[in-house]
Structure formats: C-alpha cells, structure tokens
Amino acid sequence: MTEPLLKARGLVKRYGRVTALDHADFDLMPGEILAVIGDNGAGKSSLIKAISGATVPDEGTITLEGREVSYASPLQAREAGIECVYQTLALSPALSITDNMFCGRELRKPGVMGKWFGMLDQKAMEKFAREKLSELGLMTIQNINQAVETLSGGQRQGVAVARAAAFGSKVIVLDEPTAALGVKESRKVLDLIQDVRSRGTPVVLISHNMPHVFEVADRIHIHRLGRRLCVVDPKSISMSDAVALMTGAMQPEQVSAA
Amino acid sequence: MSESPTPGGQEYEASLKDSASAVAEFEHAPRGMIGTIQHVLHGNPTFVPVIILVASITVFGFIAGERFFSPFNLSLIMQQVSIIGILAAAQTLIILTAGIDLSVAAIMVLMSVISGKLAVEFGVPAPIAIVISFIGGIAAGYLNGWLVTKIKLPPFIATLGTWNVFFALNLYLSGAQSIRGADIDTTAPLLKFFGQSIAIGSARLTYGTLLMIAVFVALWYVLNKTAWGRHVYMIGDDKESAELAGIRTDRTLRQVYMLAGFICALAAWASIGRVGSISPQSFYEGNLESITAVVIGGISLFGGRGSIMGALFGALIVGVFQSGLRLAGVDVLWQVFAIGWLIIIAVAIDQWIRKVSA
After folding, report:
1. Which of A102, B25, B219, B221 has a CA-to-CA distance to A120 between 20 and 30 Å?
2. Nearest by CB to B225, which of A92, A120, A137?
3. How high is the pLDDT of residue B1?
C-alpha cells in the first residue's frame, strides 16, 4: 500500500474543558479526494485547523511526505504547500478581490521598481485574479477591484476557493466550500475539485452535502466525537448508512469494512 | 461516478451548460445629484477632506480678506501644521492597523531632547546625535509594538503607559530645562536644518514643510504600491483573517510601530528647526492633535480604511481654521470650539458616505 501523503496520529486539542480532538488519526493518500463528514461539533474544523497550522495540537504528530512537521502558523503550512479555505473564509472585507487573492504572495513589477522599491505589478495581479475567477465561473463579479464586502456571500466563498486552488501545491483543504454557493457555482467548485485531483493534487473536502460528497470523494473519513470513527468507500456504502455512522445510529462493525 | 472527468452531476444541474458566460453588466439608474455626490465620495473618500479644505479656505478668504490669501499666510499655515502633520502621518499608520498611539508627541519631544543634549551639552557631533535620536525613536516604537503584540495589551493602554514613561524620561533627561536656540546655533546648527526655508515671492517654504510633504508621499507609496502596505490594511481590516491568510501579523505590527517611532524622530528633528529651541514642555497636546488630523482626514478609527493623504488634508484643515479664525479676530477659545465641531462634522459626513455600497 502506498504511504499517505499527509498523515496525522493521535491528535489531541483541548480548549479549556472542551475536548475538540480526542486522539484523532487522519490519512490523505496522494492524488485522492478525501471527504470528511461528521456531525456539528464532531471536531472536523479542529482537525482541519491542526493540519493547516491554524492551531497547534496539544498532542500527536503530523507527517507530510514521510517527514514529521509542526506548523506554528498558517503561513508555514502554506509554505509547505497546504492551502486551506476556512469556513470564515479569511478575507479582508475592505480590500479588493485582487488584494485578497494575493495576500502575502503579491507579484512585484519586474526590474528596478519591483526589486528595490517593492512596487506591485497591479496589472498582472488583476489579470491573474480575473482568470482564476473565470475558471470558477464567477462571471457575476463585475469589477475585479471591488471590495470583497460588496460581494454576495457566495461570491466571497468563490474568491476564497479560487485563492486556494490557485496556490495550493501539495494539499488543498476545503472546509464547507459550497455551503453558501449557488447551484452553478457549486457545480463549478466540484468540477474544480476534480480538476485539481486530475493534476495530481489531493483534496480534503469537508461537507454536509451528501450527494456532493458521494459524487466526488474517493474515500470518506467519518469523524465522530473528536476522533476518526472509520473510513469508508463511497462506492460500497449507501448515503443513509454513512449518515447513520456519522450520527452514531450504527457502529462501524455493522458495515462491511471499506 | 467519481471516475468521470466531466461529471454530469445531479439532474437539476443539466441546464448549467447553457448558462451565460459573459461578465455581468448593468445599466445604472439615475441617482439624482445628492445620490451621485454620495456615490462619488464613497468611491473616493479622500475627496471629503479635500472639499472641506477648499471650502474652508474659500470661506476664510471672504471673512479675513486678502491677509488670509496672501502667499505669506498660506505658507505660514503649512509651516504651522508641519510638525503635527508629520506626527499625523505616524498616527495614521497605527490607526490603519486599528490601533491608536497616544505616545507619538512624547516620543518626538524625548528624541529632540536626546539629540539636543548629546549635541549641545556633550559635544557629540550633530549627525551622530541625530542618528542616535532616530535609533531611539525606532526603539520607542518597538517598545509600543512589543507591548501590543507580545504582552497583548490594547494599543490604547500600551501607549497611554508609554506616553507617561516617555514624558517623565524627557523631564528627567532635560532637567525640565529648555535648550536655548542660541546654544544650538553655536554648537550644532544642523539640528535646526529644517528651519531653513526657500523664499518664493513672499511665501516661505521651510524645509520642515517639504519634509512633511515628502513623508506623506513616501508613505502613500508604501501603503498603496507595496505588499507590506497592503498587509497593513489587511491587518487593520481583520487581523485574524490576515493571520489565516498567511500574513505575519505580529511582525508586521511591530514594524508599523517602529516605522511610526522613526517618523516621530524625524518630526523631532524638524521641530527643533520649527520652534528654534528644545523645550521638554512643548507639544504636550501633540498626541491628540495628531489624532484630530487623522480623524478629520476621514481615516477610520476601526482600522483598514482611509488614505494617508486624508491625514495631510486633515492637518491642513485644522491649520486653516486656526489661521482664519485668528485673522478674523476670533478668541482662541472659539478656535478650539470650532475644531471640536469640525471633528464631529467630519466623522458624521464620513458615516453618511459609508452608507452607500459601491
């Protein structure tokens, strides 16, 4: 069996007296789409935050490509090639779409102005941002320099997804990427996820939308009460069984192992 | 089903392949004059202080007549606001990060005392004394930034504390004594460099005025045209988002406080030229005056919004009011009264503009 690209063992995260992660394990294989499902409060977001460097777990290890890593900040995870779309989106409302797309990775002008005076290449950045939004089918955005606060919720989510897709090199993590999106945009995000995988980049998808999960996922990680309950194959389990596992109505032993 | 590269998806999605692919465009309904003004101002918030500035110059021109409009008086206003203007530039940086710096003027006076003491009393060559004051300004800014990012103090509290600390240090180092202008002239005339001026007709442009303009132009460039500047706005807008999006927020914040401290040290040098001597008791209200300029300039105290140029116009508006009212023979207390209302009106207009979505 191939080694997981991203592996976590025994992650524990406590917030005061609340335990969000209770010795959780996690495996992401190269080139797969792994869906993570679970009830509200199961610890999905905490798991994602631990993987993407947004929180530092109290215990446990994370290995990326066989090397143990520990991220003190999202920036370090990003530099290692893990890109994340958070539920809160992490966008700056008063800034333009372009500014938000590049956040920390701005392009500089070639030549002296860029090198010595740090001048940004606004034109190239705008062009890039527009292309990425068009790839996602976000055609309703009229002005690439409009402030993010003037966009609808779905458009904002689209911008965040486009940012992750544009820059994620090893792993892309999407926390509820379609929750606020319209039918067409959701479809584009799903297409995009598959497109990302076809380029060889694995995707972690957190979603409550079972039809979407079953359509795109190669494996489904079911999270319950702060830990991994089991991993199932969407081709050999029904949606209702997956929901039953997730909510505790059924135990993993009752389903044939994936 | 996960194998197909272009999945058909769910049944209800079948018609998506025919959906529009052009960037949406709309005709805009006429807004009426007030609406149009509001809209334009929303897109360009810096217009507001510009309009107030032009309007106040016009009004005071009518009231005070030619004396107000004379090149001499207009250049005098520039001189008078130059120190508070430079402090307002430093203050803008901090306020853009959703902070506030009550210690800017205290840093400035402390650094002018340090460079003056070193150069005039201890015989340190003036350029070295000035460099030491720059380093001192950066160190003072670092202390503020450290308190805000490492100790996690709210900026208001951190700088309220350091304001008092710096003010006390300044009284201690100076022995509460001024350094006389004549002594500076004989031992270290370089300290008064920014008091020199270029005469254009009857107008006198001091180097201090030019320094103020240069500081604003440089900061405008840095804030709008460099990645670091955009990060400053992002942090002020939403620090947590900026952190998640991969900005080193605490490091950038410390840099912001250090840059502000450096600008205060520049203001210290300029203030020696402007005042002609070094007084530990001077500019006691400079902290609040710099905040006044920033607020009148339309920069949001909640961070992330506003243009640095607004602070320059804000400082000029205050200068025009003071000069105009003085020339019109109005008592000083009514000048203060007018500035008070100016702050309230400026922020009220700002709120009105923000009601329009772009």
Report:
1. B25
2. A120
3. 37
Q: What are the average pLDDT values for consecutive 10-residue runs of chain A, which has 258 residues?
A: 86 89 92 91 87 89 90 87 87 90 87 85 91 78 84 83 84 86 82 83 90 92 90 90 88 68
Contact: A139, B242; criterion CB under 8 Å: no
Would you say residue A79 lies in a domain? yes
Whole-structure pTM value: 0.87
Q: Does A72 touch chain B (CB under 8 A)?
A: no
Pick from B342, B321, B304: nearest CA to B45: B304
Which residue in B has a C-alpha nearest to residue A104's C-alpha? B247
Number of domains observed in the structure of chain A:
1
Q: Residue A1 falls within a domain, yes or no?
A: no
Does residue A133 lie within any of the structural domains? yes
Query: ipTM, 2 decimals?
Result: 0.84
Residue of A nearest to B358 (CA): A150
What is the CATH classification number for the domain harbouring A115? Answer: 3.40.50.300
Shortest distance, CA B294 to any CA of chain A (angstroms): 19
Min distance A139 CA to chain B CA atoms (Å): 5
Q: Judged by CB atoms within 8 Å, which residues 144-173 of A form the interface with B?
A: 146-147, 150
Residue A214 belongs to domain spanning: 6-254
For residue B5, the chain A residues in CB contact (below 8 A) are 194, 198
Residues in chain B closer than 8 A to A95 (CB atoms): 230, 233-234, 237, 304
Q: Cβ A120–B22 below 8 Å, yes or no?
A: no
Q: Are A92 and A110 in contact (CB under 8 A)?
A: no
Q: Read off the tokens for A233.
A: 């194959």
Identify the structural domains of chain B with CATH numbers, from first to last.
43-354 (1.10.3470)
